[in-house]
Amino acid sequence: xxxxxxxxxxxxxxGDNENSEVxxxxxxxxxxxxxxxxxxxxxxxxxxxxxxxGWHVHLEFLLAQLNNQTPPPFWATHTTLExxxxxxxx
Length: 90
Fold this sequence. Notes:
- By secondary structure, the protein is α+β, with helices and mostly antiparallel strands.
- It has 2 helices and 4 strands, in the order ββββαα.
- The protein is globular.
C-alpha cells in the first residue's frame, strides 16, 4: 500500500516462502509528526526478536541523525536490545 506522504507498506521475504509485512505510517501530532513502524506476520520467535531489535536500532539511528548526534554502534546495540526483547516477550 502507498499513500504518500502518510503510508508505505510492503512485503518482506523471510525465507521458506514466508513473507512478513512492514508498514510505515506518519501522523500529525500538533507541530510534530509521529512515525509508526509495524512489522507483522512474523511467525518464528527468532524472527520477532531480530526484527524488534533491528527496527529499534534503525529508529535510534534516524533519531540521532535528526538531532545531529552520533548514532550508537549498530551490532552491539542490536545484541543488547535483542536480549532485552527476549526478556520482555516471555
